[in-house]
Design a protein that fits this description.
By secondary structure, the protein is an alpha/beta fold. It has a domain of 277 residues: 3-Layer(aba) Sandwich (Rossmann fold). Helices cover 41% and strands 13% of the residues. The protein has a seven-stranded mixed beta sheet with strand order 4-3-2-5-6-8-7, with helices on both faces. A two-stranded antiparallel ribbon has the order 1-9. The radius of gyration is 22 Å and the shape is globular.
Length: 419
C-alpha cells in the first residue's frame, strides 16, 4: 500500500503536470500526432501493396484500420496433455502454466504445425508428377530456434503423421541459432523425449550454431536433394528478414512470425568486421546469452523500408521530401518503434491502435518486398487467440514462389474474416 504522504504527493504532481504539461508530455503528444499523420497518409494514399491476401483481392481501396483487417488462420487445437511434457512448449519450455503467454505459445506452435503439415502433404502428392525424383526429403529450417519451443514439438508432431500422408518422405529439422547455450538446451530437451514406434523423430533434429545473416554458409549444410521449408517464430528484428533470405536461396516457402521490429534498426556489434552479410564474423565466445540481441540488427545490404511500395507510400506523404532517403528511413523508424510497443492494461487506447496499425504496415512491407524482388506470392494471417489489441506479435507471414504447389496450399488454408 502506498503511504498517504506519497499518495498525496503523486496527486499533487499529477495536478501540476495537467496544468503545466511537461516537456515529456508535449514530446509524446507531438510524436503521436506525427504517427497518426504517417499512418493515415499511408492507409489512404492509394499506393497499395501487391495483392497480398484476400482482403485486398476483394477490392479494398485502402489499408484497413480495423483490427479485423487481417484474417485469422483457423486450425485445430492439440491435446498437449496427451503428449510427453518435454514436447509441450509450456512444460518443456519452462513457461509458467495457466498464463496468457503459455496459451499463446501453444497456439503459435499449433499454427505452424498446421501450415507445415499441409505443405508436406501436398508436396508429396506433387512429387509423382512434376517434381524430380532426385528429391529425397525435406529440410525444415527453424531460423532462430532458441531452445526449441518450435523445433521440438514440430518435429515430434510431424513424425506422428502417417507414412501415407507424407509418402515415406524423409523430414529433417535443422535448428539454427547464434546462441549455442540455447542450442545446448534444445539438445538436452530432445534427448529426453521418448521415441515414436521405436523410432526417434527427435534424432532428426540437427543443430547449427550460426548467424542467420550467413545465408550461403547455412545453405551449404543442406543437401541438394532436399526440398526446404523455412519457419521462424519470434526471430528478433532483422533476423526475420534473414529467415526470408534463407528461403529465397532455394525458392522455398516460408512461414514466419516476426517480433521486435525496432531491433532491426540497431547497429550490429560485428558490422565493422564485415563487408557483406555472408562474411559476418564472430568468435566462439560471442555465442553467449546476449548474442540474439547482438545479431538482431541489419547488415548493410538490408535497407528499410524493404519494399518499393512503402518507399513510394512514404514519399507521397510529403512532396518536399520525395528525394530524401533519410526522410523515408526516419519515417519508417518511427513506425518500427511504435510497432514494437509492449501492450498491457496501462497502455493508452491510441497507443494500442498505433501499435497495431504500424505493425501491420511493417509486415506488409516485408511481404511486398518478397513479391517485388523475388517473385513470391504472399499472405498475412493472424494466429488464433492473438488479439492485436492485447498482444502485438501474432502476425503470420507466408510466402511461396508464384505458381508453386506451396502457393496453392497457402491460398487454400482455412481462415476467418471478421467484417
Amino acid at each position: 500500500m502506498i503511504p498517504l504522504p506519497t499518495f498525496l504527493g503523486l496527486l499533487l504532481v499529477t495536478s501540476e503536470e495537467s496544468n503545466n504539461p511537461s516537456r515529456w508530455r508535449r514530446r509524446t503528444a507531438k510524436r503521436r500526432e506525427r504517427t497518426e499523420q504517417i499512418l493515415t497518409g499511408i492507409e489512404t494514399s492509394g499506393v497499395l501493396p501487391p495483392p497480398l491476401y484476400d482482403a485486398y483481392r476483394r477490392g479494398n481501396k485502402h489499408l484497413s484500420r480495423s483490427c479485423d483487417g487481417i484474417p485469422t488462420l483457423l486450425n485445430s487445437p492439440i491435446d498437449w496433455d496427451k503428449l510427453d511434457g518435454t514436447i509441450d512448449p509450456i512444460r518443456g519450455g519452462k513457461i509458467r502454466p495457466d498464463t496468457p503467454r503459455g496459451a499463446r505459445k501453444r497456439a503459435q506452435v499449433e499454427a505452424f504445425a498446421y501450415v507445415v503439415s499441409e505443405l508436406l502433404k501436398n508436396s508429396s502428392k506433387d512429387r509423382h508428377s512434376t517434381v524430380s525424383s532426385a528429391i529425397k526429403g525435406t529440410t525444415i529450417i527453424d531460423a532462430g530456434s532458441g531452445a526449441g519451443n518450435l523445433a521440438i514439438p514440430l518435429a515430434y508432431l510431424l513424425d506422428m503423421e502417417t507414412s501415407e500422408d507424407f509418402d515415406n518422405h524423409e523430414i529433417d529439422m535443422l535448428a539454427i541459432d547464434v546462441n549455442e547455450i540455447a542450442l545446448q538446451r534444445l539438445a538436452e530437451r530432445a534427448a529426453s523425449i521418448p521415441t515414436i514406434g521405436g523410432n526417434s523423430a527427435i534424432a532428426k533434429i540437427r543443430t547449427l550454431g550460426a548467424d542467420l545473416a550467413n545465408a550461403d554458409i547455412i545453405m551449404k549444410d543442406i543437401p541438394s536433394d532436399q526440398d526446404v521449408i523455412v519457419v521462424s517464430l519470434h526471430a528478433c528484428g532483422a533476423a526475420s528478414d534473414y529467415a526470408m533470405n534463407l528461403a529465397y536461396k532455394r525458392d522455398a516457402p516460408f512461414v514466419i512470425c516476426p517480433c521486435c521490429t525496432a531491433k532491426s534498426l540497431t547497429k550490429r556489434d560485428d558490422s565493422k568486421n564485415s563487408n557483406s552479410h555472408n562474411t559476418v564474423k564472430a568468435s566462439s565466445e560471442d555465442y553467449g546469452m546476449n548474442t540474439s540481441f547482438k545479431r538482431s540488427g541489419a547488415t548493410d545490404d538490408i535497407t528499410y523500408p524493404r519494399s518499393k511500395w512503402l518507399n513510394n507510400a512514404i514519399m507521397s506523404l510529403d512532396a518536399t521530401n520525395n528525394s530524401s532517403k533519410s526522410h523515408r528511413k526516419n519515417e519508417y523508424a518511427l513506425l518500427a518503434k511504435v510497432a514494437d510497443v509492449g501492450l498491457g492494461p496501462q497502455t493508452p487506447t491510441q497507443q494500442r491502435e498505433h501499435q497495431r496499425r504500424s505493425k501491420k504496415i511493417i509486415e506488409l512491407d516485408r511481404l511486398a518486398s518478397s513479391s517485388e524482388n523475388h517473385g513470391y506470392e504472399t499472405d498475412l494471417f493472424r494466429i488464433q487467440h492473438h488479439d492485436p489489441r492485447e498482444y502485438g506479435k501474432g502476425e503470420l507471414l507466408l510466402g511461396a514462389k508464384k505458381g508453386s504447389v506451396a502457393a496453392d496450399v497457402f491460398s487454400s488454408l482455412h481462415v476467418k474474416y471478421t467484417e
